[in-house]
Specification:
The complex is a heterodimer of chains A (279) and B (168). Chain A is α+β, with helices and mostly antiparallel strands and 279 residues long. Chain A has helices spanning 2-29, 35-63, 68-106, 198-201; strands at 115-125, 133-136, 149-151, 157-164, 169-173, 180-185, 191-195, 206-209, 222-225, 237-246, 253-259, 268-275. Classes of the chains: A alpha+beta (279), B mainly alpha (168). At the A-B interface, helix 1, helix 2 and helix 4 of A face helix 1, helix 2, helix 4 and helix 5 of B.
Chain lengths: 279, 168
């Protein structure tokens, strides 16, 4: 054994090292997903699908053991919420009609926000504690491209596609340190940036930075995507303000935001492959 | 050791590694303690290298790193190839010059590998967006505490494979 590695070990090491260097160069030069990584993702996707199916099945079984009492309380709360929303909807119906009438009078184009969506399942979560990414089972063959948004079934923002292979794609969630999305405070229309932070990521929070008037924020303020620049759709819910903190330097303030999407336990998401820019 | 036995030994190492990789992908992300989950990859490379020496260990680390680079997203291109190779090199040297291969050695090289990988991650996040150093160091510490118990299991499996083929 030792003789074999004494004789060929250095050549093996050199050969693999050359492959590593070539891969590094390809990764650095290519703008999209490198071919080898795409191919590896395609080969691995059936195994990912099988693994996630088993994992989901186990999760489903454990979920069934949730307390019945908790479910009853949640059901009661939801009934109240439905009643409130129905009351609000009745009030809003008149506003919608009035809005439509005034728009017709002024000959204004109605603000549509049609999202073209592709449904996808979570096949894998990031193996590292330093990133918050998920791998999905849809790729370029389904029209998915780098930069597409991922939302959950309630329309809350989950993240943005950072890599796309033929039948898979990787989404950096809004908690990831590389994530930075133009955001608006729904109540005050204050523009800011929703960013992932290393110290908040493991706790399941993100930050809201570059705030013009941080003192005007209150706990529970809804944060939505601004849609500025047309990269992402506007009005997607990111989360709610939890608290205001001062940066380490003591000069700037940022808000800690609780994401509305349950990023840690998602099994299915929708990828927004197209949308109308609302001005 | 004959070429055939050598091949069989590394097939055994690879199959166990594959099993650990599956556990890392499918099970461990769901087990979160202090916001982190156990991270096995650097420990697999380091423990194998502590048993198999300075030549075979780094090659195993490099190949494992390449596979991981193709399957997972790293902090920078070829992140896993670089970190797992270095982990294996450090482990191989430590097992030869500092500590006799065994449980203590496996724990020590696993800790060193996790810290090394953590420092590379720290450098990457600090460079890319200026993450606070204290947050990064705190994450390394938590990852170390949560992951290290798994080194015992990796040690038990890999030492069994090593013993089975030693001197054949």
């Amino acid at each position: 054994m030792k003789r074999f590695f004494s004789k060929y070990g250095i050549w093996l090491l050199a050969g693999v090292a050359i492959i590593v260097v070539v891969l590094c160069i390809i990764s650095a030069v290519s703008s999209g997903t490198p071919f080898l990584r795409n191919a590896a993702g395609v080969i691995a996707s059936p195994f990912r699908a099988a693994g996630s199916a088993v994992s989901d099945w186990v999760s489903d079984i454990t979920d069934r053991f949730d307390s019945v009492e908790d479910l009853q309380q949640e059901n009661e709360a939801l009934r109240k919420q439905v009643a409130d929303l129905e009351r609000q909807l009745r009030g809003a119906q008149k506003d919608i009609e009035e809005n439509q009438r005034l728009r017709n009078l002024l000959d204004l184009q109605s603000q549509r926000r049609d999202l073209q969506k592709v449904s996808a399942r979570v096949a894998e979560r990031s193996v590292s504690n330093w990133a918050s990414t998920i791998t999905l089972n849809k790729g370029t063959s389904a029209g998915v491209a780098i930069g597409n948004c991922a939302i959950d079934q309630y329309g809350n923002l989950v993240g943005v596609v950072t890599e796309a292979g033929m039948n898979w794609c990787t989404v950096a969630t809004i908690l990831d340190t590389t994530s930075a999305i133009g955001a608006t405070v729904f109540r005050t229309e204050q523009v800011a940036v929703a960013q992932g932070r290393l110290d908040l990521m493991s706790q399941g929070y993100l930050s809201l930075t570059y705030l013009e008037d941080p003192d005007n924020l209150i706990s529970g303020d809804l944060i939505v995507t601004s849609g500025l620049g047309g990269y992402y759709p506007s009005g997607l819910v990111i989360g709610a303000v939890k608290e205001l903190r001062t940066d380490v330097g003591g000069l700037t303030q940022y808000a800690v935001v609780t994401p509305k999407a349950n990023v840690m336990s998602l099994t299915q998401v929708f990828l927004v492959t197209g949308f109308d820019v609302v001005e | 050791m004959t070429q055939r036995m050598l091949t069989i030994k590394w097939v055994f190492y690879s199959l166990w590694t594959l099993l650990f990789l599956l556990a890392q992908q499918l099970v461990l992300p769901h087990i979160r303690i202090w916001g982190v989950h156990p991270y096995l990859l650097p420990m697999l490379s380091a423990v194998a290298a502590s048993f198999e020496g300075r030549r075979e260990g780094p090659i195993f680390g490099l190949v494992l790193g390449l596979v991981c680079d193709l399957l997972f997203t790293g902090a920078f291109p070829c992140f896993y190839a670089v970190t797992l190779l270095l982990s294996a090199l450090v482990a191989g040297l430590a097992a030869r010059h500092l500590i006799m291969p065994g449980l203590v050695c496996s724990l020590a090289v696993s800790a060193a590998a996790l810290v090394l990988t953590g420092l590379f991650n720290t450098a990457a996040v600090s460079y890319s967006y200026g993450a606070p150093l204290t947050a990064a160091l705190w994450l390394i510490a938590r990852e170390l505490v949560v992951s290290l118990p798994a080194a015992v299991l990796i040690h038990l499996v890999f030492s069994r494979v090593h013993r089975r083929f030693a001197g054949r």
